[in-house]
Amino acid sequence: MTQVAKRPDRRIRVLVVDDSALLCRLITELLEADPDIEVVGTAADPYIARDKIKQLTPDVLTLDIEMPRMDGLTFLRNLMRLRPMPVVMVSTLTHAGAQATLDALAAGAVDFVPKPSAHPQHGLGEYGSMLVEKVKAAAQVQVAALTDAPAPAAPPPPAAKYRSEGRIIAIGASTGGTEAIRSLLDGFPADAPPVVIVQHIPATFSTAFAQRLDRSSRLSVHEAQDGDVLQVGHAYVAPGGRHLRIERNGTDWRCRIGDDAPVRLHRPSVDAMFDSLAEHAGDVTSAALLTGMGDDGARGMCALRKAGAPTFAQDQASSVVWGMPGAAVALGGAGQVLPLGRIGAALLASTADA
User: Fold this and answer.
1) NCBIfam families recorded for this chain (predicted)?
2) Strand locations in the chain, DSSP E?
Protein backbone atom coordinates (compact mmCIF):
# COMPACT_ATOMS: atom_id res chain seq x y z
CA MET A 1 0.00 0.00 0.00
CA THR A 2 2.87 2.34 0.72
CA GLN A 3 6.50 2.35 -0.17
CA VAL A 4 9.44 4.69 0.25
CA ALA A 5 10.27 6.90 -2.71
CA LYS A 6 13.05 9.41 -3.12
CA ARG A 7 11.94 13.03 -3.09
CA PRO A 8 13.35 15.43 -5.68
CA ASP A 9 16.11 17.68 -4.38
CA ARG A 10 13.90 20.65 -3.47
CA ARG A 11 11.97 21.99 -0.53
CA ILE A 12 9.04 19.91 0.71
CA ARG A 13 5.80 21.66 -0.23
CA VAL A 14 3.18 21.48 2.55
CA LEU A 15 -0.48 22.47 2.61
CA VAL A 16 -1.85 23.09 6.12
CA VAL A 17 -5.57 22.28 6.50
CA ASP A 18 -7.22 23.49 9.72
CA ASP A 19 -10.24 25.65 10.46
CA SER A 20 -8.32 27.54 13.16
CA ALA A 21 -6.43 30.48 11.71
CA LEU A 22 -4.25 30.55 14.83
CA LEU A 23 -3.21 26.91 14.45
CA CYS A 24 -2.61 27.36 10.72
CA ARG A 25 -0.29 30.26 11.49
CA LEU A 26 1.51 28.38 14.27
CA ILE A 27 2.01 25.20 12.24
CA THR A 28 3.21 27.28 9.29
CA GLU A 29 5.79 29.09 11.43
CA LEU A 30 7.07 25.86 12.98
CA LEU A 31 7.41 24.12 9.62
CA GLU A 32 9.00 27.06 7.81
CA ALA A 33 11.66 27.33 10.53
CA ASP A 34 13.21 24.37 8.72
CA PRO A 35 14.96 25.36 5.47
CA ASP A 36 13.87 22.15 3.73
CA ILE A 37 10.14 22.89 4.10
CA GLU A 38 7.90 25.43 2.36
CA VAL A 39 4.28 25.92 3.38
CA VAL A 40 2.64 26.68 0.06
CA GLY A 41 -0.78 27.45 1.49
CA THR A 42 -3.44 26.97 4.14
CA ALA A 43 -7.07 25.92 3.93
CA ALA A 44 -9.88 26.41 6.43
CA ASP A 45 -11.95 23.44 5.25
CA PRO A 46 -11.72 20.42 2.92
CA TYR A 47 -13.47 22.13 0.01
CA ILE A 48 -10.88 24.91 -0.01
CA ALA A 49 -8.18 22.27 0.47
CA ARG A 50 -9.41 20.32 -2.56
CA ASP A 51 -9.03 23.38 -4.79
CA LYS A 52 -5.63 24.30 -3.35
CA ILE A 53 -4.29 20.78 -3.84
CA LYS A 54 -5.07 21.14 -7.55
CA GLN A 55 -3.51 24.61 -7.73
CA LEU A 56 -0.45 24.15 -5.52
CA THR A 57 0.44 20.44 -5.89
CA PRO A 58 1.77 20.02 -2.33
CA ASP A 59 3.97 17.07 -1.36
CA VAL A 60 2.41 16.66 2.09
CA LEU A 61 -0.85 17.65 3.79
CA THR A 62 -1.28 18.34 7.49
CA LEU A 63 -4.95 17.71 8.21
CA ASP A 64 -7.23 18.48 11.15
CA ILE A 65 -10.02 16.00 11.86
CA GLU A 66 -12.73 18.33 13.21
CA MET A 67 -13.62 20.90 10.54
CA PRO A 68 -16.74 22.59 9.14
CA ARG A 69 -18.64 21.42 6.05
CA MET A 70 -16.76 18.11 5.88
CA ASP A 71 -14.82 16.31 8.60
CA GLY A 72 -11.18 15.50 8.01
CA LEU A 73 -11.69 11.73 8.01
CA THR A 74 -14.28 11.87 5.22
CA PHE A 75 -12.01 14.18 3.25
CA LEU A 76 -9.05 11.86 3.79
CA ARG A 77 -10.95 8.84 2.47
CA ASN A 78 -12.02 10.79 -0.61
CA LEU A 79 -8.48 12.04 -1.10
CA MET A 80 -6.98 8.55 -0.90
CA ARG A 81 -9.38 7.33 -3.58
CA LEU A 82 -8.99 10.22 -5.98
CA ARG A 83 -5.54 11.74 -5.39
CA PRO A 84 -3.50 9.74 -2.87
CA MET A 85 -0.76 11.73 -1.17
CA PRO A 86 1.10 11.73 2.18
CA VAL A 87 -1.04 13.08 5.02
CA VAL A 88 -0.06 13.85 8.62
CA MET A 89 -3.11 14.14 10.85
CA VAL A 90 -3.28 16.82 13.57
CA SER A 91 -5.16 15.17 16.42
CA THR A 92 -6.68 16.03 19.77
CA LEU A 93 -5.38 13.94 22.68
CA THR A 94 -8.79 12.63 23.68
CA HIS A 95 -10.49 9.24 23.49
CA ALA A 96 -12.60 10.42 20.55
CA GLY A 97 -9.50 11.91 18.94
CA ALA A 98 -7.68 8.59 19.36
CA GLN A 99 -10.49 6.65 17.67
CA ALA A 100 -10.64 9.13 14.79
CA THR A 101 -6.87 9.14 14.37
CA LEU A 102 -6.68 5.35 14.26
CA ASP A 103 -9.46 5.45 11.63
CA ALA A 104 -7.36 7.96 9.68
CA LEU A 105 -4.27 5.75 9.82
CA ALA A 106 -6.38 2.83 8.59
CA ALA A 107 -7.64 5.06 5.77
CA GLY A 108 -4.12 5.84 4.57
CA ALA A 109 -2.69 8.69 6.66
CA VAL A 110 1.06 8.26 7.16
CA ASP A 111 1.31 9.59 10.71
CA PHE A 112 -0.16 12.01 13.23
CA VAL A 113 0.85 14.74 15.66
CA PRO A 114 -1.12 16.14 18.60
CA LYS A 115 -2.50 19.64 18.33
CA PRO A 116 -0.03 22.11 19.83
CA SER A 117 -2.62 23.28 22.37
CA ALA A 118 -3.05 19.67 23.50
CA HIS A 119 0.67 19.20 24.06
CA PRO A 120 1.39 21.39 27.09
CA GLN A 121 4.03 19.12 28.61
CA HIS A 122 6.47 19.99 25.87
CA GLY A 123 7.71 23.35 24.64
CA LEU A 124 7.00 24.59 21.15
CA GLY A 125 10.61 23.95 20.15
CA GLU A 126 10.29 20.25 20.86
CA TYR A 127 6.87 20.13 19.26
CA GLY A 128 8.19 21.87 16.15
CA SER A 129 11.05 19.38 15.85
CA MET A 130 8.60 16.48 16.07
CA LEU A 131 6.30 18.07 13.48
CA VAL A 132 9.17 18.71 11.06
CA GLU A 133 10.50 15.18 11.49
CA LYS A 134 7.12 13.63 10.73
CA VAL A 135 6.47 15.84 7.71
CA LYS A 136 9.91 15.01 6.30
CA ALA A 137 9.31 11.30 6.80
CA ALA A 138 5.87 11.55 5.18
CA ALA A 139 7.39 13.28 2.15
CA GLN A 140 9.44 10.14 1.51
CA VAL A 141 6.37 7.90 1.31
CA GLN A 142 4.64 7.06 -1.95
CA VAL A 143 1.00 6.48 -1.07
CA ALA A 144 -1.00 4.13 -3.26
CA ALA A 145 -4.70 4.58 -3.97
CA LEU A 146 -7.05 3.35 -1.27
CA THR A 147 -8.77 1.15 -3.85
CA ASP A 148 -5.60 -0.93 -4.26
CA ALA A 149 -6.18 -4.27 -2.56
CA PRO A 150 -3.58 -5.02 0.12
CA ALA A 151 -1.48 -8.12 -0.28
CA PRO A 152 -3.08 -10.96 1.64
CA ALA A 153 -1.26 -12.02 4.78
CA ALA A 154 0.34 -15.44 4.66
CA PRO A 155 -1.75 -18.01 6.57
CA PRO A 156 -0.40 -19.18 9.90
CA PRO A 157 1.45 -22.49 9.85
CA PRO A 158 -0.47 -25.61 10.92
CA ALA A 159 -0.75 -26.36 14.63
CA ALA A 160 2.05 -28.93 14.56
CA LYS A 161 4.52 -26.23 13.56
CA TYR A 162 4.25 -23.84 16.48
CA ARG A 163 4.29 -24.01 20.26
CA SER A 164 1.93 -22.04 22.44
CA GLU A 165 3.38 -22.83 25.85
CA GLY A 166 6.74 -21.57 27.03
CA ARG A 167 7.33 -19.08 24.21
CA ILE A 168 6.97 -15.29 23.84
CA ILE A 169 6.50 -13.23 20.66
CA ALA A 170 7.68 -9.61 20.83
CA ILE A 171 6.79 -6.89 18.30
CA GLY A 172 8.05 -3.31 18.02
CA ALA A 173 6.91 -0.58 15.60
CA SER A 174 6.44 3.16 15.09
CA THR A 175 5.33 5.09 11.97
CA GLY A 176 2.93 2.90 10.01
CA GLY A 177 2.93 0.38 12.83
CA THR A 178 -0.70 0.55 13.94
CA GLU A 179 -1.88 -0.98 10.68
CA ALA A 180 1.16 -3.26 10.30
CA ILE A 181 0.56 -4.77 13.75
CA ARG A 182 -3.15 -5.18 13.06
CA SER A 183 -2.37 -7.00 9.80
CA LEU A 184 0.17 -9.24 11.51
CA LEU A 185 -2.08 -10.20 14.44
CA ASP A 186 -4.99 -10.90 12.09
CA GLY A 187 -3.09 -14.01 10.95
CA PHE A 188 -2.44 -15.37 14.44
CA PRO A 189 -4.52 -18.29 15.76
CA ALA A 190 -6.44 -18.05 19.03
CA ASP A 191 -3.89 -20.25 20.81
CA ALA A 192 -0.77 -18.35 19.70
CA PRO A 193 2.02 -17.78 22.22
CA PRO A 194 1.65 -14.61 24.30
CA VAL A 195 2.50 -11.48 22.30
CA VAL A 196 4.02 -8.31 23.77
CA ILE A 197 3.84 -5.12 21.72
CA VAL A 198 5.49 -1.71 21.83
CA GLN A 199 4.07 0.85 19.40
CA HIS A 200 5.15 4.49 19.71
CA ILE A 201 1.83 6.09 20.67
CA PRO A 202 0.55 8.73 23.13
CA ALA A 203 -0.93 7.73 26.48
CA THR A 204 -4.51 8.51 25.46
CA PHE A 205 -4.22 6.42 22.28
CA SER A 206 -2.90 3.07 23.52
CA THR A 207 -6.18 1.91 25.10
CA ALA A 208 -8.09 2.61 21.90
CA PHE A 209 -5.36 0.90 19.89
CA ALA A 210 -5.52 -2.24 22.04
CA GLN A 211 -9.32 -2.28 21.81
CA ARG A 212 -9.13 -2.04 18.02
CA LEU A 213 -6.67 -4.93 17.84
CA ASP A 214 -8.89 -6.96 20.15
CA ARG A 215 -11.88 -6.49 17.83
CA SER A 216 -9.99 -7.59 14.72
CA SER A 217 -7.83 -10.40 16.11
CA ARG A 218 -8.51 -13.93 17.34
CA LEU A 219 -6.28 -13.08 20.30
CA SER A 220 -7.46 -11.36 23.46
CA VAL A 221 -5.66 -8.00 23.21
CA HIS A 222 -5.47 -5.42 25.99
CA GLU A 223 -3.30 -2.64 27.33
CA ALA A 224 -0.62 -4.15 29.57
CA GLN A 225 -0.93 -3.63 33.32
CA ASP A 226 1.90 -3.94 35.81
CA GLY A 227 2.06 -7.54 37.03
CA ASP A 228 0.06 -9.08 34.18
CA VAL A 229 1.02 -12.74 33.72
CA LEU A 230 1.69 -13.59 30.07
CA GLN A 231 -0.92 -16.09 28.87
CA VAL A 232 -1.36 -18.13 25.72
CA GLY A 233 -3.79 -16.48 23.30
CA HIS A 234 -3.28 -12.99 24.76
CA ALA A 235 -1.48 -9.89 23.48
CA TYR A 236 -0.24 -7.03 25.67
CA VAL A 237 0.15 -3.48 24.31
CA ALA A 238 2.55 -1.12 26.10
CA PRO A 239 0.66 1.81 27.65
CA GLY A 240 1.36 5.06 25.84
CA GLY A 241 4.06 7.09 27.59
CA ARG A 242 5.20 4.15 29.78
CA HIS A 243 7.78 1.41 29.31
CA LEU A 244 6.84 -2.27 29.04
CA ARG A 245 9.42 -4.79 30.23
CA ILE A 246 9.12 -8.54 30.79
CA GLU A 247 10.50 -10.26 33.89
CA ARG A 248 10.51 -13.81 35.24
CA ASN A 249 8.52 -14.42 38.42
CA GLY A 250 8.80 -18.03 39.51
CA THR A 251 7.32 -20.05 36.68
CA ASP A 252 5.55 -17.03 35.16
CA TRP A 253 6.55 -14.22 32.81
CA ARG A 254 5.10 -10.92 33.94
CA CYS A 255 4.68 -7.43 32.52
CA ARG A 256 6.49 -4.63 34.33
CA ILE A 257 5.31 -1.10 33.57
CA GLY A 258 7.73 1.75 34.25
CA ASP A 259 7.68 5.53 34.27
CA ASP A 260 11.47 5.83 34.21
CA ALA A 261 13.29 8.05 31.72
CA PRO A 262 12.83 7.61 27.98
CA VAL A 263 15.23 5.15 26.36
CA ARG A 264 16.86 6.67 23.29
CA LEU A 265 14.18 9.38 23.30
CA HIS A 266 11.21 6.99 23.48
CA ARG A 267 8.73 5.90 26.15
CA PRO A 268 7.53 3.29 25.55
CA SER A 269 10.75 2.08 24.01
CA VAL A 270 11.14 -1.04 21.89
CA ASP A 271 14.75 -1.26 23.08
CA ALA A 272 13.59 -1.30 26.72
CA MET A 273 11.27 -4.24 26.03
CA PHE A 274 13.72 -6.13 23.81
CA ASP A 275 16.57 -5.65 26.31
CA SER A 276 14.44 -7.04 29.15
CA LEU A 277 13.57 -10.07 27.06
CA ALA A 278 17.19 -10.60 26.06
CA GLU A 279 18.14 -10.58 29.75
CA HIS A 280 15.35 -12.79 31.08
CA ALA A 281 13.85 -14.73 28.17
CA GLY A 282 16.17 -14.58 25.17
CA ASP A 283 16.06 -18.31 24.53
CA VAL A 284 12.25 -18.47 24.43
CA THR A 285 11.50 -15.22 22.56
CA SER A 286 10.86 -14.59 18.86
CA ALA A 287 10.95 -10.92 17.86
CA ALA A 288 9.91 -8.71 14.96
CA LEU A 289 10.77 -5.08 14.27
CA LEU A 290 8.29 -3.42 11.94
CA THR A 291 7.99 -0.12 10.09
CA GLY A 292 8.98 3.06 11.92
CA MET A 293 11.14 6.18 12.01
CA GLY A 294 14.47 6.23 13.80
CA ASP A 295 16.38 3.29 15.24
CA ASP A 296 14.52 2.29 18.42
CA GLY A 297 14.63 -1.47 18.82
CA ALA A 298 17.66 -2.06 16.61
CA ARG A 299 20.14 -2.48 19.48
CA GLY A 300 17.66 -4.48 21.53
CA MET A 301 17.13 -6.80 18.57
CA CYS A 302 20.90 -7.32 18.39
CA ALA A 303 20.85 -8.30 22.09
CA LEU A 304 17.98 -10.70 21.49
CA ARG A 305 19.71 -12.35 18.55
CA LYS A 306 22.88 -12.72 20.60
CA ALA A 307 20.79 -14.37 23.33
CA GLY A 308 19.52 -16.94 20.84
CA ALA A 309 16.18 -15.45 19.79
CA PRO A 310 14.94 -15.74 16.19
CA THR A 311 14.64 -12.15 14.91
CA PHE A 312 12.78 -10.72 11.92
CA ALA A 313 12.82 -7.25 10.33
CA GLN A 314 10.17 -5.96 7.96
CA ASP A 315 11.59 -5.31 4.50
CA GLN A 316 11.85 -1.89 2.92
CA ALA A 317 9.27 -2.47 0.18
CA SER A 318 6.45 -3.21 2.64
CA SER A 319 7.43 -0.60 5.26
CA VAL A 320 5.92 2.86 5.42
CA VAL A 321 9.27 4.09 6.79
CA TRP A 322 12.28 1.74 6.80
CA GLY A 323 14.01 3.37 9.75
CA MET A 324 13.80 0.98 12.71
CA PRO A 325 13.92 -2.29 10.75
CA GLY A 326 16.61 -0.86 8.47
CA ALA A 327 18.73 0.07 11.48
CA ALA A 328 18.37 -3.48 12.85
CA VAL A 329 19.51 -4.89 9.52
CA ALA A 330 22.49 -2.52 9.42
CA LEU A 331 23.57 -3.53 12.94
CA GLY A 332 23.20 -7.24 12.24
CA GLY A 333 20.25 -7.73 14.58
CA ALA A 334 17.85 -9.17 11.99
CA GLY A 335 18.12 -12.88 11.40
CA GLN A 336 15.72 -12.59 8.46
CA VAL A 337 14.31 -9.67 6.45
CA LEU A 338 10.77 -10.40 5.24
CA PRO A 339 7.74 -8.61 3.79
CA LEU A 340 5.05 -7.88 6.33
CA GLY A 341 2.74 -10.57 4.95
CA ARG A 342 5.27 -13.31 5.79
CA ILE A 343 6.41 -12.19 9.24
CA GLY A 344 3.48 -13.60 11.23
CA ALA A 345 3.91 -17.12 9.90
CA ALA A 346 7.68 -16.89 10.39
CA LEU A 347 7.25 -15.81 14.02
CA LEU A 348 4.91 -18.69 14.74
CA ALA A 349 7.09 -21.24 12.94
CA SER A 350 10.14 -20.05 14.91
CA THR A 351 8.47 -21.10 18.17
CA ALA A 352 8.41 -24.77 17.15
CA ASP A 353 10.71 -27.28 18.81
CA ALA A 354 13.70 -28.25 16.70
Assistant:
1) PRK00742.1, PRK12555.1
2) 2-4, 12-17, 37-43, 60-64, 87-91, 111-114, 141-143, 168-173, 195-199, 220-223, 234-237, 243-249, 252-258, 285-289, 311-314, 336-338
One of 3.40.50.1970, 3.20.20.150, 3.30.70.120, 3.40.50.2300 is the CATH number of 2-143, namely 3.40.50.2300
Q: What does the pLDDT look like over 114-149, one tens digit per residue?
A: 988 644 445 788 899 999 999 999 999 988 754 444
Assigned fold of 159-350: Rossmann fold (3.40.50)
Based on the residue annotation, tell me whether 200 is a catalytic residue of this protein: yes
Q: Which of 174, 217, 276, 319 is catalytic?
A: 174
Q: Which of 275, 296, 318, 319 is catalytic?
A: 296
Active site residue 296: yes
pLDDT digits (tens, 9 = 90+) for 265-286: 899 999 999 999 999 999 999 9
